User: What shape does this take?
Amino acid sequence: MNIFKGFVIKEFIHIFRDYRTMVILFGIPLVQLLLFGFVIKSEIKDADIAIYDQAKDNHSKRITNKLLSSGYFRLDKDLDNYDGIHQAFREGKVKLVIIFEQNFSEKLEKTGNANVQILADASEPNTANLLVSYSNAILSSYIKDLNSTSKMPYNIITEIRMEYNPELKSVYMFVPGIMALLLMLISAMMTSISITKEKEMGTMEVLLASPIKPFVITAGKVVPYIFLSIINVLIILSISYYVFDVPIKGSLFLLVSVCILFILTALSLGILISTVTNSQQVAMMISLVALMLPSILLSGFIFPIENMPIVLQYLCQLMPPRWFIEIIRNIMLKGVSFSFIWKETCVLFIMMIVFNLLSIKKFKIRLE
Amino acid sequence: MRIILFLLRKEFLQVFRNKSMLPLIFMVPIIQLIILVNAATFEMKSIRIFIIDNDMSSSSRSLISKISGSPFYKIVNTGFSYKQAMDEMHKGKTDAILNIPPDFEKKLFKENTGKIQLVINAINGTSAGLISAYTNTIINDFNRKIIIDASQNIAVNASLIKSLNINYSFWYNPELNYKTFMVPGVLVLLVTLIGFVLSSMNVVREKEIGTIEQINVTPIKKYQFIIGKLFPIWIIGLFELAFGLAIGKLLFNIPMVGSLPLLFFVASLYLIVVLGMGMFVSTLVETQQQAMLISFFLLMIFILMSGLFTSIESMPDWAQYIVKANPIAYFIKIIRLILLKGAGIMEIKKDIIILVLFGISMMSFAIIRYRKTS
Assistant: This one.
């Protein structure tokens, strides 16, 4: 036990000596949370548009005013010919062009029907889609106001409720993802690198030749990272709770235990990586390709899994973060009890055991 | 000049001798393009919806058949109990619930307004917004059809009702193909990652192994050393772009409207910026582990604030000012302009000048900061 204690202390000294790494490890969650909380939004405001008004009369001017005062659009330029549209799009600033036909008001008043054309730059498809639907809604409401004298029959009113996240805040979605990403980074990547570093420097030989058991060496390497991971989890949770008002509806005890389970799974993965590699660079590459990419992309962190092709959906099932993120979302935002998430928890548990068995099988106590 | 040539030979030898490099150079673009482009999609293909129909009238049935007929929806279940539906949403088995109350049809025709309720799982705000937009469009179409059918029966004076013909078209990507949007962005990511990671690790590796001291005691000049280090990576970066473009063309058939030489010209300028940043990082750190963490940290911020995944317009004003200092954002903008819209050099000259300024300042930082004496 004494040997173990000494070993853990050595590891802590190694970690704390490298203050740059420490700063980054604790800086990442802060910056990410702030970025996602304040910067990344799904709503669009002040998009630059151009207007080609061939009529310049009463209604077209009033519609233009209504569009620009909505807060969604900002006038970048007035166009006076058709060729200008291409030019405007190519400069890359204008996202939407609205064209009013000649004699717009006259047609609207006399025949009750006039034409508006909306051209969107769809090189960014979602933005284009949203901007078209915003402008569509504004035009429709203008016409509805005009018609308010004659009453429209048979209206269906749709009452929409946004469950779990009424203000559509993106932090709600990102907090579980950032936790998964960070725990992967600290637990799996840092552990695998710190063990391979020992191999690369040749100090692993010294450790293996000493009477310390391989199990104690590995455990000693892992303990400090468990500690760092838990501190990081607490930081993320308190920022998201106090600064961004992300609710924690379920039990805090359950939440923390699941986090610890995930930390152990990630550490086992890190140990497995370190047993199959000999150099830091390879360990890093494996971590980046096999850990970062999947935990950002194949976990449902940003992009919904259901939209992916079937093959990728199956691939997603093999990723530990995918299960962890689901559990965390369920506990924090939906407030479910353990009976709802026991399956996902079991999957994580089985993954952890498999990783450990593999590492025991692969662990070499002799040099090649 | 001769010294630089020798240095280049040494670096190329080292790059190709390293066995993990070659798979990296060929595998990373393939993995990124195939996985990233397919996985990073907000295209809604099957919205899972639970329908509660307590009205059981002909109107409610025809509304439901409109939804089931749409390619965007998959009806997971139908039932009569709101609690059962919420349970399904709790378990994550449905994305949305459409609740049609009893007397929907009666109220619609007698009192002129019928109410229905749509509950959406909004944990992912972007998806929720899109689901609500799609569903609203279907319900509005349905509503319009009811009004038209009804107005044939009762005499509504049609000429009194004014209407607009709104005609919209999507330029440069008429089918709103998300892949056309993603591939150019992913190519930028590819070039940036390779350039940044390789250049930031390279010098640190020599530091860690100790061979940097051997170079420092030779009469090699600072600029010669840096050119020798960066030129091979610059070549690899441009090769990656060509390779990635070829995959994008073959697999995803992305449009290439503009001129490819112009694209490579801009890419070669952009790579100088990236390599300069990587070099600068490597002068700040002592170990490869630190270099990697710092690269990861910086790249994460640069990428998230580049307009690759989310549009820059949706950021708050202060963040949009920060984006102006993000070289990745400029290159993503330029590559989309060239590939999708066919912009020429005149339309992007401002952005090119900014990239050149970035490049000059980054390189000078790196050269000033790199010291031959410790």
User: Anything to note?
Assistant: Chain B has a mean pLDDT of 83. The two ends of chain B are 26 Å apart (CA to CA).
